[in-house]
Amino acid sequence: MRAAVIVFPGSNCDRDMAVALKAAGADVQMVWHKDASLPDGIDLVAVPGGFSFGDYLRCGAIAAQSPICNDIVRHVERGGYALGVCNGFQVLTETGLLPGALMRNAGLKFVCKTIPLKVETSASAFTEGYNAGDTVGFPIAHHDGNYTVDPDMLTQLDDEDRVAFRYTENPNGSVSDIAGILSENRRVLGLMPHPERAVDEGHGGTDGQALFRGLIGQFANA
Ligand SMILES: NC(=O)CC[C@H](N)C(=O)O
């Protein structure tokens, strides 16, 4: 499986993402945001966490205008996979690839800690390594993680089983405790918590491994 990790000015989880993907068996290429196109044969685009363009305007809003984002949209329209973590989730909402938006945390504070999440569905390449109902611990580190979406889309996300993860102790005010959502075709996942920071005993937990192994395993079996 070939993965591209996108690097913006201000990305700071790009190498963590690459390490997690490689550990699970992916071939990984780093791709600079100014590139007009992804390398040939990319299966997964990973948009990592960080503070792209200093989080000016809205988090992810400037990054979404980078040249590479046009090709990320084409990749997804062709049926390619994309994973956006934290700032990456913010970028994917700003590109329109995922619905909703991430607002300032309800408590107006940056929150940095490992928190429990409930896996809501195992019906996606990203979550098939878990059972629905599992509780996992992933770190969060954000000030704009308060997910919001209009009521009709919220109903649609629930009806279509597209809420991938929910907070069991909501840290940021997200509507319906949503921590991560899937696209309509279930090939794009955006989530605020960081699974790539939970893949090694040295991280204090390995609950993120199943996400990367499950995803990459799909390609091994294809
Ligand atoms: N860790 C991150 O990706 C930070 C995300 C984002 N810039 C925020 O603070 O909300």
From TrEMBL:
Entry annotated with the keyword Zinc-finger: no
Stretches that traverse the bilayer: none
Transport is among the record's keywords: no
Chief place where the protein resides: cytoplasm
Keyword list, A-Z: ATP-binding, Cytoplasm, Glutamine amidotransferase, Hydrolase, Ligase, Nucleotide-binding, Purine biosynthesis
An example molecular function term from Gene Ontology annotations: glutaminase activity
Subcellular locations according to the entry: Cytoplasm
Signal peptide coordinates: none
Substrates-to-products reaction catalysed: N(2)-formyl-N(1)-(5-phospho-beta-D-ribosyl)glycinamide + L-glutamine + ATP + H2O = 2-formamido-N(1)-(5-O-phospho-beta-D-ribosyl)acetamidine + L-glutamate + ADP + phosphate + H(+); L-glutamine + H2O = L-glutamate + NH4(+)
Pathway given in the UniProt record: Purine metabolism; IMP biosynthesis via de novo pathway; 5-amino-1-(5-phospho-D-ribosyl)imidazole from N(2)-formyl-N(1)-(5-phospho-D-ribosyl)glycinamide: step 1/2
Catalytic activity, EC: 6.3.5.3, 3.5.1.2
Active site residues according to the UniProt entry: C86 (nucleophile), H194, E196
Domain of life: Bacteria
Pfam families referenced in this protein's UniProt entry, alphabetically: GATase_5
SMART domains named among the record's database cross-references: GATase_5 (SM01211)
Protein's job: Part of the phosphoribosylformylglycinamidine synthase complex involved in the purines biosynthetic pathway. Catalyzes the ATP-dependent conversion of formylglycinamide ribonucleotide (FGAR) and glutamine to yield formylglycinamidine ribonucleotide (FGAM) and glutamate. The FGAM synthase complex is composed of three subunits. PurQ produces an ammonia molecule by converting glutamine to glutamate. PurL transfers the ammonia molecule to FGAR to form FGAM in an ATP-dependent manner.
Quaternary context: Part of the FGAM synthase complex composed of 1 PurL, 1 PurQ and 2 PurS subunits.
Stated name of the protein: Phosphoribosylformylglycinamidine synthase subunit PurQ
Native source species: Yoonia phaeophyticola
